[in-house]
């Protein structure tokens, strides 16, 4: 009688232990499933599909700090391309300068106003002068805010009788602002100034 009860009790303990093991296994599997599901959902949120020229391109979102220096350099390059690329066409000049001024504060506006008052842009149009810029390098110090930058570039000024190559060095700082269609990088150039702008070579045109 006692042996039979003992066997029943032992069997019950085994069944209870097995049941607890199964329940623990189910809980672990459920937790892993939920974790993997949230992980997959997070990855999908960071993945963007772009349709360009009939092709689907895959892109990945990233934190701003991961690309801060790259975006800052491109912002500075974009501003310089718009501000210093000029052709003998009033509409082209106004469009380029307008795009550039969205990327900078009043320091760039004052520089533009000074050049306009000194008939610089009128001289570009009347003299059929074209001006292009090639960015050599941009140094950005992201250790402090606003970030300081220095841009090294070469200008080519094509006149009717000559081609002038000039060295251009500028500096300023970058402040974070909201992104927009006119300012996709979300930076604003402050205290913009030209610290060097001198002729390198002058080539006569035939």
Summarize the structure.
With 206 residues, the chain is of the alpha+beta class. It has helices spanning 2-45, 68-84, 90-101, 106-117, 120-126; strands at residues 47-52, 55-60, 130-141, 147-158, 162-176, 187-204.
Kindly describe this structure.
The structure is a single chain. By secondary structure, the chain is of the alpha+beta class. It folds into 2 domains: 2-48; 64-204, VirB8 protein (Nuclear Transport Factor 2, Chain: A). It has 5 helices and 6 strands; from the N terminus they run αββααααββββ. It has a 4-stranded antiparallel beta sheet, covered by helices on one side. It is rod-shaped, with a radius of gyration of 32 Å. The termini are far apart. 15% of the residues are buried. The model has no long low-confidence stretch (mean pLDDT 84).
Task: Provide the fold topology.
Layout: H1 2-45, E1 47-52, E2 55-60, H2 68-84, H3 90-101, H4 106-117, H5 120-126, E3 130-141, E4 147-158, E5 162-176, E6 187-204
Antiparallel strand pairs: 1-2, 3-4, 4-5, 5-6
Helix pairs in contact: 2-3
Protein name: Conjugative transposon protein TraK
Transmembrane segments: 15-35
Organism: Flavobacterium johnsoniae
Number of helices: 5
**CATH 4th-level superfamily of the largest domain:** VirB8 protein
Unreliable segments of 5+ consecutive residues: none
**Count of all domains:** 2
Radius of gyration: 32 Å
Which architecture of the largest domain does the CATH hierarchy give at level 2?
A: Roll
CATH topology of the largest domain: Nuclear Transport Factor 2, Chain: A
The amount of helix comes to 40-55%
Q: What would you call the shape?
A: rod-shaped
Number of DSSP strands? 6
The fraction of residues assigned to DSSP E strands is: 25-35%
Mean pLDDT: 84
Secondary-structure element pattern, one letter each:
HEEHHHHEEEE
CATH class of the largest domain: Alpha Beta
N- to C-terminal distance = 123 Å
What is the chains' assembly state?
single chain
């Amino acid at each position: 009688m006692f042996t039979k009860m003992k066997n029943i009790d032992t069997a019950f303990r085994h069944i209870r232990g097995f049941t607890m093991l199964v329940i623990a296994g189910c809980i672990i599997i459920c937790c892993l499933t939920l974790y993997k599901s949230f992980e997959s959902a997070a990855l999908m949120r960071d993945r963007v599909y772009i349709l360009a020229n009939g092709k689907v391109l895959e892109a990945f979102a990233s934190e701003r700090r991961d690309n801060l220096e790259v975006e800052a350099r491109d912002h500075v390059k974009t501003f310089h391309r718009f501000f210093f690329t000029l052709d003998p066409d009033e509409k082209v000049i106004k469009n380029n300068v307008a795009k550039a001024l969205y990327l900078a504060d009043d320091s760039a506006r004052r520089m533009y106003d000074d050049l306009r008052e000194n008939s610089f842009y009128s001289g570009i149009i009347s003299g059929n002068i074209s001006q292009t810029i090639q960015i050599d390098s941009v140094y950005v110090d992201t250790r402090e805010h606003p970030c300081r930058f220095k841009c090294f570039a070469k200008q080519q000024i094509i006149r009717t009788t000559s081609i002038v190559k000039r060295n251009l060095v500028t500096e300023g700082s970058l402040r974070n602002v909201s992104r927009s269609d006119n300012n996709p990088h979300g930076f604003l150039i402050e205290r913009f100034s030209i610290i060097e702008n001198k002729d390198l070579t002058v080539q006569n045109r035939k």
